[in-house]
Structure formats: C-alpha cells, structure tokens
Amino acid sequence: MLVIYCCGNEENYSRLGLVVSRKVGKAHVRNRWKRLIREVFRLEQHQIPVPLDLVILPRQGATPDFASIRNSFCVLLKRLTKE
After folding, report:
1. How far apart are the C-alpha atoms of 40 and 13, rounded to whole Å?
2. Helix, strand, or coil (residue 21)
3. What are the distances in angstroms from CA 62 to CA 10, 49, 69?
4. How many CB atoms lie within 10 A of CB 79?
C-alpha cells in the first residue's frame, strides 16, 4: 500500500515528506491520502527510535483507508528499524 524511503537526519526529530502523484487519483483523492498519511505519522512518530527523514508514496491503485495505511506504516517502520 505504501512505499517508504528513509535516511537519518541531524535534527532531534523525524520529518515527513509526501509524494502523491496524479496517477493515484483526482485532487480530492490525493488530498485524502495526504491527510491520512499525516495523521498516521502524527500518531506513530513516537515509535521511531532515531530521527529519520521519511518520504512516503502511496501505491497506484490502492484505496485510502486509515486502518490499512496505519497497518502498512507500522509494518514498514518495524522493518526499517531492524535494518
């Protein structure tokens, strides 16, 4: 559902970048993706152990659903923190 690129940063906090292409849908769909991803990041940012810069892209053809976005983000975040 999501693709996450990350790298460490020099700040004391993690930062979020969003890339939501026109291929995902019309403006109202892209805006919904952005709102949901920002909310998931806000709720889950305390679980990121080191300050990271995250760039998140939704996959084309996926539907914006809060529960599935949060689940995907948490799974990918666990995978990133192991590496």
Report:
1. 16
2. coil
3. 33, 28, 10
4. 10
| pLDDT score, position 23 | 92
Tell me the per-residue pLDDT of 4-16, one tens digit each, with 9 for 90 and over. Answer: 999 988 989 999 9
The C-alpha atoms of residue 30 and residue 12 are separated, in whole angstroms, by: 30
pLDDT-based confidence at residue 67 (cuts at 50, 70, 90): very high
What's the confidence (pLDDT) of residue 49?
Answer: 83
Please spell the DSSP secondary structure of 27-78, one letter per residue: HHHHHHHHHHHHHHHHHHGGG-SS-EEEEEEEPTT----HHHHHHHHHHHHH
Length, in residues, of the chain = 83
What would the mean pLDDT of 53-66 be, rounded to a whole number? 91
- Domains of the chain (ranges plus CATH)? 2-82 (3.30.230.10)
- Residue holding tokens 């996959």? 59
